[in-house]
Amino acid sequence: MKPFKLNISQIPIELKFILDLLKEDFQYESNRASYEEINWDTFIKLSLHHRLYPVIYLKLKQLKEGIVPSFVMNYLSIQYKRNTLKMLKFSAITEQISRLLTDNQIPVILLKGPALAHQLYGDISHRTSGDLDFLVPIEKLEETEKLLVGQGYVKDEYIQTVLNDWKWRHHHFTYIHPQQNIKVEIHWRLNPGPGKEPKFNELWKRKSRSKLTHFPVYLLGKEDLLLFLISHGARHGWSRLRWLVDIKYLLVEKHLDLKRTLLMARIYHYHRSAGQGIYLAKSLFNLELVPEMERLTKAPSAKKLAQQAVFYFENRINLHSDPVPEDVANYHKSHLFALRSMQQKIIFIISFLYPYPEDKQLLPLPKAFHFLYFPLRPFLWVWRKTRKHALS
């Protein structure tokens, strides 16, 4: 049987150049002819889209002068410096919020941001960050919100809920500081539900301390971090290559407890997304994997799901800006379902029986009668679909 190889023949040549730059054994001269048709405007757009322009800029600086047009280097240099200033600001905010919560006896774990950049890349300027993500115990959410509001943050009330479904259907609240233009996400779960996850206390026991700040700031332990970054990237279709570069650095530079990693992947049903993510990182960056990690990529599902993810690279998919085109939304919905284990698929299907906020909008009932949404759920679903079809 012919061995499977990831088919990336349809991705833009500019993205292939970016992928080549990120390989440790990259040699420009040996591939020079394949880069002659590069559209440098497209190259810039892809560097920005995939949030890789800091590390790409540093890689380009190592090439001989004249290979890359000066306007490209100048533009990326400006973006690199802006990102460095932004990450310095984020570092200060990270320490400020961590101190605020810790002083009020709220344990907090950083999920991303400059602390993650420092841990993975050794330099906060080498990675971008759009916001700051903190994980706290769910029972501390109300207290955390009061503290943030006291510091001038305003909650983005975009989550609609009925019968407290927010606790397991969602995973974070968003807060904006209007004056500082800072967005903070307070998580109580690592990912949206339904799904099995480690409890906060388990994550807290395995936490690691960041070396970025003087005040103690904590990140997920290496094994938890790998699985979190994999599940997060997979949930977004790896539509930003930055997430795969994070995986690459974790696999190559950090000493992981492989036995614990594989055990947690099975317990929390990350094995399909882990197989996909590690196979993508291996294929795109020519990684040499240790045998334990290699085994994760041998499953047929890992190769199939990895090939499905190439769709997001071919089409420069942006899932973060509404409206998402209907064909893309449908593809993504199908892909997310394919990433689930059989147990997760069953739980996900059963979760449709739990009332949605849309049911409340369609048939408003007094709070005392909200329990009626359970038996009414199938009828309201049909009613809503019928109305939607009639309107379209």
TrEMBL record:
Source domain of life: Bacteria
Q: Which organism is it from?
A: Virgibacillus profundi
Name of this protein: Renal dipeptidase
Q: Name one Pfam family in it.
A: NTP_transf_5
